[in-house]
Amino acid sequence: MGIQRIESVTYAIDDLGVCVRFFDDFGLSLVERSDEHAVFVTRTAQTLHLDTVPSPSLPAPVEDGPTLREVVWGVDTPQELERLVTAAGRDREVRESADGVHHTVDETGFGVGLTMARPAPAPVAPRPANTLGSVTRWNTALEPITRVRPLRMCHVALNIPKEGREAAVGFYTDRLGFRPTDVVEPMGVFMQAPGDDDQHTMLLCHRPDKAGVNHIAYEVPGFDDVIEGGNHMIEHGWREARRLGRHTIGSNVFRFLHAPCGGRVEYAADMDRADEKYGTRVHETTPPHHIWALRTNRDQEAPTAS
Ligand SMILES: [Fe+2]
């Protein structure tokens, strides 16, 4: 099989206190904190590392300011791990650290790690929902979720330069076994890890034509979590980057926030699942960004219906 999921990510940051407050408000669990770094976990035991003094063994940052420095991918078996380390190391150094992570760099300059996947179970009970002919909630009212807890980092989106984009994608598809699901020629390539069901585990986006972190998405159980999570962040002073909507590619319901560690974070729910029957779809033009996004005209003066 091969890569199953994002296992950990590392950001190099300026202000540890602000970043810790951000991810605490976002709903991750703090498991380690010193003067220089902090570590959070998702409910499925992926780790997010925030370092003010990043390891000198990391590749140079691809952009100025706080940013993502490394994504470590979790692999299902030692044999697959060895195979991927060999494939990645055909033309570049791969260094193993004491914790068993194999570190290298992709074509753009982002750190790439490979290690064994160690998922923790996170049982999810979908909220009972009612519609005509399908009723699962009797004699009870829904209550607020109040504290949203992301289940997992479900995808990472990286910006890459236009020039050399085929090679940038090729590193992930030819060496690491990712499968392109949607190729949007003017924008980027959505890819699925072999052990993931989501329509995309990764996006390499060349539209801004420069390297940098675009966003990391965190799956939450449902729409209420996306809405309540975003509201909670706004109430705590964080800035929304994209209001509630549902994407066209992947169909996920989303809400984005600017992140002090660089780029943005996304609350995501209800993404399409895809298996090998979902071939690579090539789009010559960029599909609309979303199926729907919230609109309101309540603050306008006397709108006239047409
Ligand atoms: Fe996303």
UniProtKB/TrEMBL annotation:
Gene3D superfamilies: 2,3-Dihydroxybiphenyl 1,2-Dioxygenase, domain 1. InterPro entries: Glyas_Bleomycin-R_OHBP_Dase, Glyas_Fos-R_dOase_dom, VOC_core. Pfam families: Glyoxalase. Residues 152-270 form the VOC domain. SUPFAM superfamilies: Glyoxalase/Bleomycin resistance protein/Dihydroxybiphenyl dioxygenase. This is Glyoxalase. It comes from Streptomyces fuscichromogenes.
